[in-house]
Design a protein that fits this description.
3 helices; single chain; 186 residues; alpha+beta; two-stranded antiparallel ribbon; 3-stranded mixed sheet
């Protein structure tokens, strides 16, 4: 009985450690600034705004609900809850209006020597739609930092492996980013 109790305590400690680690990653990812790449190798640094945080939160919630529904449909899994965290924000590529002006002039010095001077001026301006919103060329979903699955059937190793494989395939992530634990019976 003491051996069973020790293994059970280790599982609880492991589950708590994973939840705390995922929470830290989630908090850290919300505080990051987003770098916005553009055409012509330029980037604009945009601070995380309330709108972006709400977009990410909505994306996380939507992903969690879809995963939970899919897993609950698998035989033997039972009730399932999912927690998904992202390691970065949504990456957007913005349109820039670039112009390059080249000016060439020839100068003759008093000794009769001719020198040619070429002056190149490059300007770049963010393209705006209307007055305030920049034009987005492409948008990329954020990278998944980790997934925690809490399921009724997770105490069975075969079911836990099926859950891990399903989440890994569904989200196209490594198995190391997926943690599957059983629901507490308390």
């Amino acid at each position: 009985m003491g051996l069973f109790q020790q293994g059970f305590n280790e599982r609880i400690i492991y589950a708590i450690a994973i939840i705390v680690a995922l929470g830290v990653v989630f908090i850290y990812s919300e505080q990051k600034e987003q770098a916005v790449p553009s055409l012509g190798q330029q980037s604009i640094s945009v601070a995380s705004s309330a709108t972006e945080n709400s977009e990410i939160a909505a994306l996380e919630k939507s992903t969690e609900e879809k995963i939970s529904q899919c897993l609950a449909s698998i035989q033997g899994v039972g009730q399932a809850k999912a927690l998904v965290t992202f390691s970065s924000g949504i990456k957007r590529e913005y349109a820039f209006d670039k112009s390059v002006t080249t000016k060439t002039s020839k100068q003759t010095d008093k000794d009769g020597g001719i020198s040619e001077v070429e002056e190149v001026t490059e300007t770049s301006q963010l393209v705006m739609a209307g007055n305030s919103t920049p034009v987005i060329i492409s948008e990329q979903r954020p990278e998944i930092a980790g997934v925690l699955i809490i399921a009724q059937g997770a105490s069975d190793p075969k079911i836990r492996e099926q859950i891990t494989l399903a989440v890994k395939t569904l989200l196209n992530i490594d198995a190391a980013k997926v943690s599957v634990v059983p629901i507490s019976s308390e």
